Amino acid sequence: MKEIYTLSNVSKKYNSLTSETIALDNINLEVKEHEFIVILGPSGSGKSTLLNILSGIDNPTKGKIRFYNQDITKFNENELSKYRKDNIGFVFQSYNLISNLTVKENIELGRELSSEPLNVDDIIKIVELEKHINKFPYQLSGGQMQRVSIARALVKNPKVLFCDEPTGALDEKTGKKVLTMLQNINKEYRTTLIIVTHNPSIKNMANTVINMNSGKIIKITHNIKTISGSDVKWV
Ligand SMILES: Nc1ncnc2c1ncn2[C@@H]1O[C@H](COP(=O)(O)OP(=O)(O)OP(=O)(O)O)[C@@H](O)[C@H]1O
Ligand SMILES: [Mg+2]
């Protein structure tokens, strides 16, 4: 499989008046097309920072990030915005839904951001929100809001879907449903899937598991066999 990302010596520093934080410390990594990657690591180890710089939400301080044959660290604001629009779906832990838009309108927002969107009604079926399309976010449960946020990212038909703790706020039943759905998306649409999680059992679903600590990648494991989202142990 072709590489979609190649990271060379990527570091991210945050400076404040009193301190300096090294959020990413000399990361080297290759991500293959259509891969399902799980990133694990303690709080503060740089997981979200890594997602943010891969998805073009933030810039690294140092290093190169090749996306196919382009170095995205060389992009100006317009090029970066086009890169995000054309290639990236992002599911935030806090959902980030627009509170005065309905479920359907929130999902349609994703379609507006894409040149090759998928059909909104098809996606609503996949995430099983048919009965809720006219509700506003405050009328939804956490699991339903998470599914709207996944649908909004997905309808863009992104090449890469990043999910930061997609099941962090969910109970076991809803969490497994969301995971199985993400797994199906990876299989069906061949979307490269990169998930950050605190649940170590989710690693068994992935092709590749990245363990981080103190801004470094400390281990990369490849699974020959993977389990279904419904067989994940809930911890
Ligand atoms: N905008 C910022 N300004 C300053 N420091 C930051 C900023 N964002 C993150 N950091 C610091 O960078 C480090 C890595 O943060 P990051 O959010 O990537 O961790 P994480 O692995 O996602 O943690 P968690 O599991 O708690 O979400 C932390 O020490 C954090 O305090
Ligand atoms: Mg985080």
Description:
- The protein is α/β, with parallel strands linked by helices.
- The chain has helices at about 45-55, 75-85, 105-110, 120-125, 140-155, 170-190, and strands spanning about 5-15, 20-30, 35-40, 60-65, 70, 90, 160-165, 190-195, 210-215, 215-220.
- It has a single domain (about 35-60, about 85-230), classed as Rossmann fold.
- About 30% of the residues lie in helices and about 30% in strands.
- The radius of gyration is 17 Å and the shape is globular.
- The two termini are about 35 Å apart.
- The model has no long low-confidence stretch (mean pLDDT about 95).
Q: In percent terms, what proportion of residues is strand?
A: 25-35%
Number of helices: 6
CATH topology: Rossmann fold
Kindly report how far apart the N and C termini lie: 33 Å
Low-confidence stretches: none
Order of helices and strands: EEEHEEHEHHHEHEEE
Tell me the total number of β-strands: 10
CATH architecture: 3-Layer(aba) Sandwich
Oligomer: single chain
The CATH homologous superfamily name equals P-loop containing nucleotide triphosphate hydrolases
Rough outline: globular
Please outline what is shown here.
The protein has 6 helices and 10 strands, in the order βββαββαβαααβαβββ. The protein is an alpha/beta fold and 235 residues long.
Key words describing this protein structure:
235 residues, alpha/beta, Rossmann fold, six-stranded mixed sheet, 28% helix, globular, binds adenosine-5'-triphosphate, binds magnesium ion
